[in-house]
Structure formats: C-alpha cells, structure tokens
Amino acid sequence: MRIELLGEPEAMSYCHCQSCRSWSASPVHQATLWKSEAVKVAAGAEHIRTFQKTPQSISHRQYCAKCGGHLMISHPDFGLFDVCAPTIPTLKFAPTIHVNYAETVLPMRDGLPKFRDFPREFGGSGEVLPE
C-alpha cells in the first residue's frame, strides 16, 4: 500500500470521540486532514476496503484488507480525507486543536483549544472546554 500526499495537510488534530477511539484502538486518534484532490493511492488500491458504521455516518473509514491496517477516513461532505498520522512516516505531527473533547478518556494539558465537539465551520457548536 502506498499513499501519496500533495502539499501540506489542511489541519492536524486530536480526536477524542468514542467512535475514533474504538476504531483506532487508542485513547486518542491523530487526525491529519487533506483536501481530497491531495490524496492519491499510488499502489495497493485493490486492497482498500471501506467501513461505514451507519448509513448516516459522514465518516467512511478505509483499511487495508491485506494487513488490516487503518489507512484513512473519507469525509465526502467536507471534501477531505483524514489520513491516519502513523501511516505517514515523514510527517511531523503538529496538532493545533482537540475535537470531541467532551468524550475524552485521556485528559491532555498542552495549551491547545479543546472543542466540545467540532469548530463551527465543521458543523459543531464551536464551544471550547477548559483544560
């Protein structure tokens, strides 16, 4: 599997929602958001499978059927892909916000804004919680 990314991510964040924690088997998900046109599967596309929890889900999770590895999450409503940070070996992960912090199981004191759900521009309340 080889994913090619053009340019820089639109954003990097930590996601604390139960759904991402469950899918990533981690207390927090490291999200890197890229415009859809910046993401290209250069090899191994035939092994990509998609999982959608519910028909209403705006997240289309993609994994490798060959190794089971998590690859990325398509957010077609926003024209973005969340490419799982650990799958990008050259990326220096530098998040600027936390999302879905109301659901956290791992409180983090790092000075970054902690949104209850999402920023308003992504359909959330825009409410920031205290550290």
Account of the 3D structure:
With 131 residues, the protein is mostly beta strands. Helix content is 5%, strand content 36%. It contains 1 helix and 11 strands, in the order E-E-H-E-E-E-E-E-E-E-E-E. It has one helix at 18-24, and strands at residues 2-5, 11-15, 29-35, 39-43, 48-51, 60-64, 70-75, 80-83, 97-99, 114-115, 128-129. A 7-stranded mixed β-sheet has the order 5-6-7-8-3-2-9. It is globular. The N and C termini lie far apart (38 Å). The relative contact order is 0.22.
Task: Give the key terms.
131 residues; mainly beta; two-stranded antiparallel sheet; 11 strands; 5% helix
Strand order of the largest sheet: 5-6-7-8-3-2-9
Helix/strand order, N-terminal first: EEHEEEEEEEEE
Number of helices: 1
Average pLDDT confidence is 94
Fraction of residues in β-strands: 35-45%
SS elements, strand count: 11
Radius of gyration, taken over Cα atoms and rounded to an integer in Å: 14 Å
